[in-house]
């Protein structure tokens, strides 16, 4: 099963809710995962003592979220240590009456050993390809069935540890014993009776223009990889985003969805729309790309005009301004299918002038228009972790809520049409320039006799550490330039960002320099490789 692929995650054994019965079969414990709000029943054989395996686990998973979870463990242990010291002071007299001096000596030595263990040096903070994940899996790869809770199961008394806890031997104090790394695949969890069922995904954040207040609940350490869905039955399913379950984290809109363009980004978006239960009609310039999605339940549209005319909201994600215009204005294009009330959402990264022109012609036919370019790459698209920048029709933005939750982790509404295009170009300008700088540094290290791997290790320990940095450096070190974000598209975005600067007479010398390096890489036939292939512009 696909649900068995997560790294080990730190957690602690806690008492389960009183009405939650332990599953039958192998011995297991109820575990709360650090850095998250998730719990699960975990089999005994999948639990390991925290201190004994800490360094090993950190080496396996260097993700930022995992590091935050480890930090939460260390904070918990520090607080526990303080409480233990306070409580032990009151009980020492009684213990002293019962224990011989030799036994006291042994306890003292054990306590010192525990203190030394708790005060180990600061943990490494690597930033590998860690995805946002809450629950974890061990090295086992077998599929695991979700655990279900029913209301008629006999309750367990609170305040009592699981009766099998005595069988778990961990050489720590009684409190620290409950801290371990555990594994979990997925589970179902009904909300409490007093908790109203919500239609939105609590892991997804909307940000409106000029919004300064933070969301009421901030799930910084919560994964989108585990989707929460509160079904009509009142139960909440938590499943991996790449599972084949139709129910995901949201209640899908009942509107018919169209999608035009099944490239690196569009393919992942459509896949997630389908997994979350949306009704989707697809079209692509090369029709064979549609076959996979037809098998997953999508409908096939013969032309963009047909898709728009048969769907309520049609999304498009194509390569550049010319492709975006041709899609709308060309023969059997989007515009021919627009009637009053039809909605068009352009997710392509284009310039503000292009998107403004498209908005005008759509609205002139009575249609509604939203621009919604996305920040991310193929992997983030597949994982449903894109960042969506939207602008235009605010009502349409809200109508797209379930779709945006299926494909992304966050959406921003930026006001009038054109704002999202400008912001997206600025974001990609920064990203593209940074990528060129990474390549420049790695090649300079090589020609001056320095280890490129050591350079990466140093950067990963500093303030520049990021998933992007680590992934792109790994691409270069491994010579793997399979496209996650086409080099030709980041060069296009740099070109459009420079033009944006020109339009307001603002200097963009860093972007201009980076653009020249990408143009050199394109001349070396790197257009269809990943943007990290800009490295090759420096070694020819």
UniProtKB/TrEMBL annotation:
Instruction: Determine the domain of life of the protein's source.
Output: Eukaryota
Q: Where is this region: Disordered?
A: 1-23, 79-174
> Where does the record place Basic and acidic residues bias?
79-132, 149-169
SMART domains per record: PWWP
Question: What GO biological process terms are annotated to this protein in UniProt?
Answer: transcription elongation-coupled chromatin remodeling
Where does this one sit in the cell? Answer: Chromosome
A Gene Ontology molecular function term for this protein is: DNA binding
**Domain named PWWP: residues:** 1-53
Query: For this UniProt entry, which segments traverse the membrane?
Result: none
One GO term describing the cellular component: chromatin
**Key word Transit peptide present in the record?**
no
The principal localisation class reads nucleus
The similarity annotation says: Belongs to the HIBADH-related family. NP60 subfamily.
Q: Which PANTHER family match?
A: CYTOKINE-LIKE NUCLEAR FACTOR N-PAC, OXIDOREDUCTASE GLYR1-RELATED
| Name of protein | Cytokine-like nuclear factor N-PAC
Origin species: Columbina picui
Q: Please spell out the taxonomic lineage of the organism that makes this protein.
A: Eukaryota, Metazoa, Chordata, Craniata, Vertebrata
């Amino acid at each position: 099963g696909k649900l068995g692929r997560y790294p080990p995650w730190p957690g602690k054994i806690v008492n389960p809710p009183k009405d939650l019965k332990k599953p039958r079969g192998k011995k297991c414990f109820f575990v709360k995962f650090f850095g998250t709000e998730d719990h699960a029943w975990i089999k005994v054989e999948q639990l390991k003592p925290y201190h004994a395996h800490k360094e090993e686990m950190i080496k396996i998973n260097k993700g930022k979220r995992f590091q935050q979870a480890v930090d939460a463990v260390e904070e918990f242990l520090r607080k526990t240590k303080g409480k233990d010291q306070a409580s032990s002071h009151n009980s020492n007299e009684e213990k002293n009456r019962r224990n011989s001096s030799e036994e006291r000596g042994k306890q003292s030595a054990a306590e010192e050993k525990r203190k030394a263990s708790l005060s180990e040096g600061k943990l490494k903070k690597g930033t590998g390809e860690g995805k946002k994940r809450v629950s974890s899996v061990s090295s086992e790869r077998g599929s695991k069935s979700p655990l279900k809770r029913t209301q008629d199961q006999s309750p367990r008394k609170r305040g009592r540890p699981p009766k099998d806890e005595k069988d778990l031997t961990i050489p720590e104090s009684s409190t620290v014993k409950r801290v371990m790394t555990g594994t979990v695949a997925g589970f179902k969890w009904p909300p409490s009776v007093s908790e109203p069922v919500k239609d939105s995904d609590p892991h997804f954040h909307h940000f409106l223009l000029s919004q300064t207040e933070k969301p009421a609940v901030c799930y910084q350490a919560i994964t989108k990889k585990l989707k929460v869905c509160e079904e009509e039955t009142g139960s909440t399913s938590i499943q991996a985003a790449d599972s084949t379950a139709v129910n995901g984290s949201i209640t899908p809109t009942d509107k018919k969805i169209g999608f035009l363009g099944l490239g690196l980004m569009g393919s992942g978006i459509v896949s997630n729309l389908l997994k979350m239960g949306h009704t989707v009609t697809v079209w692509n310039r090369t029709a064979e790309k549609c076959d996979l999605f037809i098998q997953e339940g999508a409908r096939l549209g013969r032309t963009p005009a047909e898709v728009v005319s048969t769907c309520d909201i049609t999304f498009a994600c194509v390569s550049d301004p010319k492709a975006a215009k041709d899609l709308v204005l060309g023969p059997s294009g989007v515009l021919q299918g627009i009637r009053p009330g039809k909605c068009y959402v352009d997710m392509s990264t284009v310039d503000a002038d292009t998107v403004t022109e498209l908005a005008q012609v759509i609205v002139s036919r009575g249609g509604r228009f939203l621009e919604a370019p996305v920040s991310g790459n193929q992997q983030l698209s597949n994982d449903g972790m894109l960042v969506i920048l939207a602008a235009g029709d605010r009502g349409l933005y809200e109508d797209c809520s379930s779709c945006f939750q299926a494909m992304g982790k966050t959406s921003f509404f930026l006001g009038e049409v054109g704002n999202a295009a400008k912001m997206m170009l600025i974001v990609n300008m920064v990203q593209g320039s940074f990528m060129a700088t990474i390549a420049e540094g790695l090649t300079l290290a090589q020609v001056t006799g320095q280890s490129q791997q050591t350079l990466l290790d140093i950067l990963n320990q500093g303030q520049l550490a990021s998933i992007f940095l680590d992934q792109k450096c790994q691409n270069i070190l491994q010579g793997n330039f399979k496209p996650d974000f086409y080099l030709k598209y980041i060069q296009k975005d740099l070109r459009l960002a420079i033009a944006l600067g020109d339009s307001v007479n603002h200097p963009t010398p860093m972007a201009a320099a980076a653009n020249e390096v990408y143009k050199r890489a394109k001349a070396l036939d790197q257009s269809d490789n990943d943007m990290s292939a800009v490295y090759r512009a420096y070694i020819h």
